[in-house]
Design goal:
Elements lengths: L2 H13 L8 H14 L7 H8 L13 H18 L7 E4 L8 E4 L8 E3 L8 E3 L1 H15 L5 H9 L13 E5 L5 E7 L2 E13 L5 H10 L7 E5 L3 E3 L1 H17 L4 E4 L5 H6 L1 E7 L15 E4 L4 E7 L2 E5 L2 E3 L2 E14 L6 E7 L2 H12 L1 H15 L6 E10 L2 E12 L6 H4 L2
Parallel strand pairs: 5-10, 5-11, 11-17
Antiparallel strand pairs: 1-2, 3-7, 4-9, 6-7, 6-8, 12-13, 13-14, 15-16, 16-17, 16-18, 18-19
Amino acid sequence: MNNMQIYSSQIEKILNSKEFESCKTEKKLLLYLYKNTFNKEPLNETTIANEVFSKNSYFNPAEDSIVRVHTHNLRKKLYTYYLSEGKDDDIKIEIPKGGYKLKFIKNNEKKNLSSHFFDTKKIKYLFIILPSILLIFQWIYYNYANPRHSSDLSYIHSSPIWKNSIKNDQPVLFVVGNQFFFIESTKNPNNIHESVGMKIMRYSKINSIEDLNNYAKIIDADTSVISYKPYKPAIIEKEILWSFRSLYPILDYYNDNFEMKLASELNGSDLQNYNIIFIGITKTLGILNPLLSKLHIQYKVFPHQLIVNYSPDSVQTFSPKGIQGSGPRKDYVMVNKLPGPNKKNSIMIITCTDLAGVYEAVNALTEKESLKQLEAQLREKHGVIPEYYELALEVNTISRIGFSTNLIASFPISPNIDLVKLHD
């Protein structure tokens, strides 16, 4: 097939996709832009308004933004299509900012991404405003948690697993993996003071305000008509609360002043100034995600897999089994402790694709007997317990209640590792 046949086939596939199923205007606009992309004459707003939207010769783009609005919608539809149905397509189509001619790009990075709109009628999350989080956690602990014996807490604090994470000169920052939602507001193009629609949205690759601003630039949003802003309440799953209930007495034992922050609000200075303890699912890692990109243990989100790279020629893949939240399930958790950028702090990350697995892993790391068992396994394999490490844990749960955790792989990390070079 020549290029024109390939491009034509890609256009046809998009037009017949579920994403464009009920979008007659965007389909008509895309087909028009395709047919005119390879003409020598430039495409302009007035011509499109006349030929696609049947505007007359009096059309004034300064007063009527119909072309810009529908082009924005088309960019967004293409963006969403390539996050889902088109993620494995060989050709990617874009509408570059400031123009209307299509750009065809070889999709060398076939992204396994997902996105969805947030249905407020099917909320399965716990909504908490950030200033209240710590008070709620403390109330849960003092009213429902059974305080551990001080000898158990002392043992856990002295464990090399937790060394430099909860007791050194640096303060502790507990980072909550939160789902980042945002609001898209649309105004009447003929009356910018009139709102015509609002959506609460979630894309897996938008996990901070910076990501949101970049998204608006990519799809070339007409800010006079379309605006984006973060959805204010923090969205935190209940398993995070359960995990913190296990972790709180350990943090409280020696640290009178630890802090909490949402992963979507984490910044580079936090990585310099705190011992970080992150708990959450992989798609909420935010700025921590690049730190894991070159480690031996990797996570693939679609489909869910844990990948252990023992060497370039020896790779083992583990796939979760069972349905999340219902019945028996086997999941896989990554536990990584990295030296901080200033070599005086540490970054501990406990993550997987199912929070029931994360919760059970936290329990295994904060219970004296299970911690002893893990230490014995690490000593047997490495001779000593590494100060910094990568761990892969197999976690078995039934209806989100854990009953066993097993170490399946571990690798030491050098204290001198350069985190910047790690993800370059």
